[in-house]
């Protein structure tokens, strides 16, 4: 009875305290915070209190901006220890000087302070730093030492060697759960310091070597100057930033999808505006070009090049030509350091390689740096890492140079070369005109001879039977034995069946080494599928991108023709967005990530792959989802590739899927990259709404989905298009932007539609959006079917009600 009275009395105290909610400027041992109370900074920039993320049932103690209408947590105390709503909890300082969250007398979270002080106090600074001080005002603990997913001005990223503290960001698990997710943004100090984005232990992106610099630019109505500063001494290695105009509010965050983002608050619009985000382009994935390879966004025939095509060559030429850069480049001439005759060649306009394992000395000049590197046969290159230090600073690399990209206005790197390469370089500079002409004439003759021989060999190869043509055209592709695949799929057991489509079945399999695969088995009675099989092997074996499904190999035995893909555990996008029960598993951040991922995959196909590829059958069923719900474009059976300056084609055999095909393709058989853009626009509207374009029903009109989207957009009610299940997780400005981009993509005239590079920029929030025109096929579905039927009767080809390639590797 006595215990019950004590409990009721304590609850009553908390209840009374909660009725009289207060704003404290300091917490002492005689004060505490409960739900409804806040601790505010001196000029009321930040406040600390209890909050619930979105519609979560759990409570957390966190810090957010007080005067910003959109509550934005920047730090969470008990991210690993959620507090149920029903539990009475308080934040207080105990007599020993520890700040903690208590449920009755049970401590849920604490500052874990090693120092003790009987009269400690806690104060929230205007920087957003929660500081615990002893009675003399000495700092005992601070929240800045334990970042969550956000960096504010004056916060640090790096390591404090003297106190054994590491400052790094870790993403939230999702927008309702602030517990540490799978992504971290941290400093790699095993060599010259640099920031790295990791997914678990895997590096996804590298920020580059630290240096002091200023970045000036405009973002909408704001003039931004970001100043980055670096500290490197025996006590710490740290990086931080601030904005020159102190009235601008900015924060760096690491989101649950693995993006590092810089947000700026625009008071005029009452919203956070995305300033920059990484990773963003096809050269951002870590070490995509491997040893001595460099990534370029300007090249059109391939993404990777060797650092120097005269002195470095691909380790595997055939794989390299097929856009498989996994083996990187090697030196054409090995180093001969033992003879002491090596030297260095300067390369400019490249980002510096990964600095892990490097040696550095910030007091050396360039000449001293070169001399020390030359004496060490294991030193592969040297450079000045920071051009703001007046020519001081030296970094030595001892391993292969990796993760480089072409980048203007970068510093120089000096790479070690064999003496013969240095002699050849010197000699080439001294060649006179007549000798060059002789050499060129010999080269031209040799090239013509090689071309003649190559053409003859190609002609002979084309005369071989169908099986050999497939193998010979893709010699770099792994050829699996039929026995291996049969064993992996338990003899194509129906239990392993993933799906069935126009010309075969897809099975799940497991190879002996444990690798999960998806096997597309061509139906032996389908003559139509042979061409699609060849086409898919030709197209997809030559492209490689994180948003494209990866073809691992194929198998040909008699009438049996199999394609072997990486296995996608979450199957296809349509199985989520069009399913009432499963659609709730895709909240808005996941859907927006999927939209952007598809856009980047198409950008690669249209602009950055070795061959320009038009997919021709982009739809929800051909978007596969990996373990983390990242999208991968699949099914290239209908794709067409172009070389050179070709941008469009024409066909009398119109194939595809109703609801996704552009008007110029349906009516005239003309397809181009803008045909894929149209399909992408339809797909975006389907992802936002969760409804199919074809078969869409609305009680107030007979429009299809694009017509309905156009209607609500013109009425200023775009948000109504969004699936109701997204209401709690959505960012309205992202939804509105997505719908506007979708409508821009489905405009009637191909020339009015944006290209995919513009689409990617628009989705990333760069610049104002153009006003879309009336979309194609915005009329009701019955009228559309009649129009297509009339069109179809006048064509030599036919349009199938379903795509002829309905099955995919899942």
Structure description:
The model is unreliable at 1-20, 428-434, 462-469 and 778-810 (pLDDT under 50). Helix 12 (673-689) runs antiparallel to helix 14 (732-745). Strands 1, 3, 4, 5, 6 and 7 form a 6-stranded mixed beta sheet that branches. Strands 37-41-42-40-39-38 form a 6-stranded mixed beta sheet, sandwiched between helices. The chain has a 5-stranded antiparallel beta sheet with strand order 16-15-23-22-21, with no helix packed on it. The protein has 16 helices and 48 strands. It has 810 residues and is α+β, with helices and mostly antiparallel strands. The relative contact order is 0.06. It folds into 6 domains: 1-146, Agglutinin, subunit A (Orthogonal Prism); 147-280, no CATH class; 293-430, Hepatocyte Growth Factor (3-Layer(bba) Sandwich), CATH 3.50.4.10; 431-463; 466-566, Phosphorylase Kinase, domain 1, CATH 3.30.200; 574-793, Transferase(Phosphotransferase), domain 1.
Number of strands: 48
Major β-sheet profile: 6 strands, mixed
Return the domain count.
Answer: 6
Strand content: 25-35%
Globally, the shape reads globular
CATH superfamily of the largest domain: Transferase(Phosphotransferase) domain 1
Helix content: 10-25%
CATH architecture of the largest domain: Orthogonal Bundle
Radius of gyration: 31 Å
Total of DSSP H or I helical runs spanning 4+ residues: 16
- N-to-C span: 62 Å
CATH class wording of the largest domain: Mainly Alpha
> Which structural category fits the helices and strands?
alpha+beta
Instruction: Compute the average pLDDT.
Output: 82
Oligomer: single chain
Q: What is the CATH topology descriptor of the largest domain?
A: Transferase(Phosphotransferase), domain 1
- Indicate the low-confidence ranges by residue numbers: 1-20, 428-434, 462-469, 778-810
């Amino acid at each position: 009875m006595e215990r019950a009275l004590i409990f009721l009395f304590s609850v009553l105290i908390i209840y009374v305290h909660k009725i009289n909610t207060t704003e404290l400027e300091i917490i002492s041992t005689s004060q505490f915070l409960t739900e409804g109370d806040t601790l505010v900074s001196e000029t009321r920039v930040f406040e600390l209190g209890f909050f619930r993320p979105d519609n979560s049932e759990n409570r957390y103690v966190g810090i957010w901006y007080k005067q910003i209408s959109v509550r934005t947590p920047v730090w969470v105390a008990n991210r690993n220890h959620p507090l149920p709503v029903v539990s009475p909890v308080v934040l207080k300082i105990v007599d020993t000087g520890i700040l903690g969250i208590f449920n009755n007398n049970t401590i849920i979270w604490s500052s874990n302070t090693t120092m003790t002080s009987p009269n400690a106090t806690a104060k929230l600074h205007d920087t957003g730093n929660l500081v615990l001080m002893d009675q003399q005002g000495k700092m005992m603990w601070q929240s800045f030492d334990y970042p969550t997913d956000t960096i504010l001005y004056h916060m640090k990223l790096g390591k404090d060697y003297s106190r054994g503290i590491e400052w790094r960001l870790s993403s939230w698990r999702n927008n309702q759960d602030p517990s540490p997710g799978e992504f971290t943004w941290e400093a790699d100090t095993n060599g010259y310091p640099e920031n790295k984005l990791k997914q678990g232990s895997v590096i996804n992106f590298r920020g580059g070597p630290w240096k002091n610099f200023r970045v000036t630019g405009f973002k909408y109505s704001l003039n931004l100057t970001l100043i980055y500063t670096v500290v490197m001494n025996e006590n710490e290695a740290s990086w931080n930033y601030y904005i020159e105009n102190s009235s601008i509010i900015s924060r760096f965050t690491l989101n649950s999808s693995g993006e590092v983002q810089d947000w700026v608050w625009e008071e005029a619009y009452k919203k956070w505006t995305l300033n920059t985000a990484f990773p963003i382009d096809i050269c951002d994935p870590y070490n995509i070009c491997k040893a001595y390879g460099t990534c370029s966004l300007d090249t059109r025939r391939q993404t990777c090049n060797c650092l120097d095509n005269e002195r470095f060559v691909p380790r595997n030429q055939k794989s390299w030509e097929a856009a498989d850069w996994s083996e990187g480049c090697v030196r054409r001439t090995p180093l001969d350091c033992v003879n002491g005759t090596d030297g260095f060649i300067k390369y400019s306009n490249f980002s510096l390689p990964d600095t892990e394992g490097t040696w550095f000395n910030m007091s050396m000049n360039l000449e001293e740096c070169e001399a020390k590197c030359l004496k060490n046969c294991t030193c592969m290159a040297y450079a000045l890492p920071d051009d703001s230090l007046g020519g001081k600073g030296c970094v030595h690399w001892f391993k292969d140079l990796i993760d480089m990209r072409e980048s203007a206005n970068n510093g120089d790197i000096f790479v070690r070369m064999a003496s013969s390469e240095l002699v050849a370089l010197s000699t080439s500079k001294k060649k006179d005109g007549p000798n060059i002409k002789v050499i060129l004439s010999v080269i031209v003759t040799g090239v013509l001879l090689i071309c003649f021989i190559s053409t003859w060999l190609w002609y002979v190869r084309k005369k071989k039977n169908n099986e050999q043509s497939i193998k010979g055209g893709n010699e770099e592709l792994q050829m699996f034995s039929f026995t291996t695949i049969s064993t992996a799929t338990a003899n194509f057991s129906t239990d392993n069946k993933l799906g069935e489509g126009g010309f075969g079945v897809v099975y799940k399999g497991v190879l002996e080494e444990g690798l999960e695969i998806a096997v597309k088995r061509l139906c032996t009675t389908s003559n139509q599928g042979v061409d699609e099989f060849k086409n898919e092997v030709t197209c997809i074996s030559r492209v490689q991108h994180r948003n494209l499904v990866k073809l691992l190999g194929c198998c040909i035995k008699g009438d049996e023709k199999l394609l072997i893909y990486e296995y996608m555990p979450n199957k296809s996008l349509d199985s989520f967005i069009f399913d009432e029960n499963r659609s709730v598993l895709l909240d808005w951040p996941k859907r927006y990530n999927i939209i952007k991922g598809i856009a980047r995959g198409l950008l690669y196909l249209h602009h950055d792959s070795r061959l320009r590829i038009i997919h021709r059958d982009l739809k929800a069923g051909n978007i596969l989802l990996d373990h983390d719900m990242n999208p991968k474009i699949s099914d290239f059976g209908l794709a067409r590739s172009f070389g050179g300056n070709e941008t469009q084609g024409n066909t009398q055999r119109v194939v595809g899927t109703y609801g996704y095909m552009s008007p110029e393709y349906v009516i005239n058989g003309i397809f181009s990259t803008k045909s894929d853009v149209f399909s992408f626009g339809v797909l975006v509207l389907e992802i936002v709404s969760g409804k199919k374009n074809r078969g869409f029903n609305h009680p107030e009109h007979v429009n299809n989905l694009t017509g309905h989207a156009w209607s609500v957009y013109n009425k200023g009610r775009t948000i109504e298009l969004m699936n109701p299940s997204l209401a709690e997780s959505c960012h309205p400005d992202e939804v509105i932007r997505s719908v506007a981009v979708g409508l821009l993509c489905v405009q009637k005239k191909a020339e009015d539609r944006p290209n995919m590079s513009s689409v990617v920029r628009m989705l990333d929030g760069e610049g104002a959006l153009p006003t879309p025109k009336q979309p194609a096929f915005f009329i009701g579905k019955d009228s559309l079917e009649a129009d297509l039927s009339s069109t179809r009767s006048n064509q030599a080809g036919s349009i199938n009600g379903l795509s002829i390639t309905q099955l995919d590797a899942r």
